[in-house]
Amino acid sequence: MSAAADAVIIGGGIMGLFCAHELVQQRLGRVILLEKRFCGAGSSGKSGAILRQHYSHRTTILMARESLSFYRTLKERTGRDIGFRPAPMVLLCHERERASIESNISLQRSFGVAVEMLDARQLRELEPRGEFGDEVVGAVESESGFVDPGRTIDALASLCRDDHVDLREGVRVIDVLLDKSHRARGVQTDDGQTIESPLVINAGGPWAGILCKRLGLQMPLKVIRPQQAYFVLPGGHGSEHFIFADLLTGFYWKPEAAGWTRVGRMSYEDDEEVPDPDKYDEGVSGSFVDSCRRGIAHRLPAYHHAVSWGGCGALYTVTPDAHALIGEVPGIAGFYVVSGFSGHGFKMGPAVGKGVASMITGCDPGGFDREFFDVDRFAAQQAITTSYRFGILG
Ligand SMILES: Cc1cc2nc3c(=O)[nH]c(=O)nc-3n(C[C@H](O)[C@H](O)[C@H](O)COP(=O)(O)OP(=O)(O)OC[C@H]3O[C@@H](n4cnc5c(N)ncnc54)[C@H](O)[C@@H]3O)c2cc1C
Q1: Alpha helices, DSSP H only, in the chain?
Q2: What does the CA dihedral 193, 194, 195, 201 come to, rounded to 10 degrees?
Q3: What separation in Å is there between the alpha carbon of 350 and the centre of ligand 1?
Q4: Which of 21, 163, 166, 370 has its CA 20 to 30 A from that of 39?
Q5: Which pLDDT belongs to residue 234?
Q6: Are residues 160 and 281 in the same domain?
Q7: Residue 338: inside a domain, yes or no?
Q8: What is the domain range of residue 116?
């Protein structure tokens, strides 16, 4: 059996779906998206889906900003509620880190991000239940928020179907096919199909490296297993708190629309590497839950007595500089990799889709800068640097 398309997209996560959407918007022609399980089955479905604009580079700030505007309109475009909830994000740091955070803040402000620096007294006014010693300062971004990842994926998949993307779930790509001149010519799937296409976009998230390896490519992508712990406050107080990223303790936490609180670690240095993303432990360990309880309770003491709702083990696909690889693979015309979002990609989805489409159709890239995400930057010794201790902050 065989079929033909103008572009084949591998992966129905947030990236594959936004790439499909943008390519159709740019009138590329017939787009087929292949998802081996169901849309959102990878990292996207378990995402915290925090939409913040606090970044330290022009490109990422602009992309986060553009994407936030897009997410705000997704309900209107699709008629489906994606669970957007405004929630200011507070990045806490020690007074001695203030100067470096302030320089990022000025950059963010120069692009219109609403963010301000608060001292400990102002933080106590903002969150009266919190404990902020005099050494603590915080950058507060007022326009941030989060979405429900499952509903967002669902809305986006419906948008793609309305756009006539041929979206096939339960179909795994087992090989990317090349012609004699080493150009992409399509894919082979596990249901015995060959799909001919001059463009193949590998948005396979944690699985992206596997298909690359089959082509003899060693991409700098590592799959790791971060955990998340969930808590609910007794007494029906819900999770009426802001999103916090606490550089002093290394924990972050966010409210969930259903009334619970999600807590995770900002550093993933100690997270175990996952050799086969089809087989990983989706559970959470007791010691992780305990460390998260102590992490959040250090600032919000009420969480000492919070009820544990368990948590999950998930997957991040990380690169050495914690920024994605986005672009055509050198030496294989028509084969694009879009992966390695290092735990902070969800918010960027709309801008990534636009950026990928711009490389293919020449449309306006918006804030996307192809050189920033160059897939060959490590070989060229051009890793991206950041002023944060935790790469995930970008
Ligand atoms: C616990 C957690 C919390 C996070 N919190 C945030 C946050 O608050 N804010 C934020 O911006 N980001 C966050 N992230 C990161 C963000 O969710 C990811 O960067 C993003 O979802 C990656 O999307 P993706 O489309 O690249 O990958 P995925 O969502 O993993 O999608 C890849 C898809 O490809 C499919 N696939 C793979 N190989 C094949 C194949 N051969 N054939 C067919 N299909 C295939 C998979 O089944 C999968 O559905 C978080 C991530 C996690 C795990």
Answers
A1: 14-25, 58-78, 98-110, 120-126, 149-162, 208-214, 286-299, 349-361
A2: 100
A3: 14
A4: 370
A5: 76
A6: no
A7: yes
A8: 88-143
C-alpha 205 – ligand 1 centre gap (Å): 5
Please tell me if the CB atom of residue 245 comes closer than 6 angstroms to any atom of ligand 1: no
pLDDT over 70 for what percent of the chain? 99
Measured between alpha carbons, how far is 58 from 382 in angstroms, rounded to an integer?
17
* 88 Cα: distance to centroid of ligand 1 (angstroms): 24
181-190: average pLDDT: 98
Ligand 1: nearest atom to the Cα of 347: 11
CA of 275 to the centre of ligand 1 (A): 17
**57: in domain:** no
Same domain as 372, residue 231: no
Phi, psi of 83 (to 5 degrees): 70, 35
Q: Which residue, by CA, sits nearest to atom 12 of ligand 1?
A: 344
Best of 19, 21, 34, 43 to mutate for ligand 1, by most ligand atoms within 8 A of CB?
43
Quick: pLDDT tens for 92-114: 999 999 999 999 999 999 999 99
Q: How confident is the model at residue 236 (pLDDT cuts 50, 70, 90)?
A: low
- CATH code of 358's domain: 3.50.50.60
Q: Indicate whether residue 221 lines ligand 1 (CB < 6 A).
A: no
Query: What does the pLDDT read at residue 237?
Result: 59
pTM of the complete model: 0.97
Check which CATH number belongs to the domain holding 271 and give it. 3.30.9.10
66, part of any domain: no
Q: Do 243 and 98 lie in a common domain?
A: no
Task: Please enumerate in sequence order all residues whose Cβ is within 8 A of that of 226, keeping only pairs 6 or more positions apart, or say none.
Answer: 264, 265, 268, 271, 313, 314, 315, 316, 343
**Domain end residue (candidates: 297, 313, 329):** 313
Q: How many domains does the chain have?
A: 3
- Is 68 within a domain? no
Whether 148 shows a pLDDT value over 70: the answer reads yes
- Ligand 1 geometric centre to CA of 44 (Å): 4
Within this chain, do residues 233 and 293 fall inside the same structural domain, yes or no? yes
Is the minimum distance from the CB of 326 to ligand 1 under 6 angstroms?
A: no
Ligand 1 binding pocket includes 14 (Cβ within 6 Å): yes
pLDDT in tens, 316-336: 999 999 999 999 999 999 999
The CB of 36 under 6 Å from ligand 1? The reply is: yes
The greatest distance separating any two alpha carbons of the chain, rounded to the nearest whole angstrom, comes to: 68
Tell me the one-letter amino acid at 171.
Answer: V
- Judge whether residue 389 has pLDDT over 90: no
Pair 200, 273 in one domain: no
**Atom number in ligand 1 closest to CA 346:** 11
Q: Is the pLDDT of residue 350 over 80?
A: yes
